[in-house]
Request: fold
Amino acid sequence: NWSRYIYLHERPYRPHAFAAICAELTDESYWEHLSSIWTDAENIVQDHALWASLLKDPGRLSTRHLMMNDEERKRLDQLPDELTVYRGVNHGAHDRGMSWTADPAVAHRFALRFGGHGHPQVLTGRTRKADVIAYLHGRNEDEILLAPEAVTGIIASTVLSLVVVPAFFLIMDDLSRLLAHLFGRFVGKKEEEEEALSNEKL
Reply:
């Protein structure tokens, strides 16, 4: 039982235990176990290179969607093609990590998980849905796995502006949708007026 073997190891050593036996696993088992280990892990950055290699295994890429369950795949499909992502950090460390979230409140919580000590920050950036490795909701964190280079335009918000910058991105997203809606109505209304005028001429 490979699951039992993996979980006999302490949490920090489970990725290494998985790597030692992953060649024996089917694609479905590979991604299910990797998803479970990732969700339970506490310090992904400690083994960043190992995680990157496991998530980008060339022989498994075509089945990587199996890392998500049906609900998570559905949630990922519903995301816009370009989206804002957030990451809570402290002391400015690990700002190029792989774990992000679609929920600014989650990032805020992670930034302050040490009681506000140090220099908590929320990083806000943009990415493409096509670059998302996986969307995981097992801990209700709207977690988005991304290669560090897939996140651009990163802005770091200090504790004094943890609400301001994420709110700015949300407002801009809402504003773009509102303008698209209003512009669409304006165009539609103009076309209706022109059609009405044409009918009057007739």
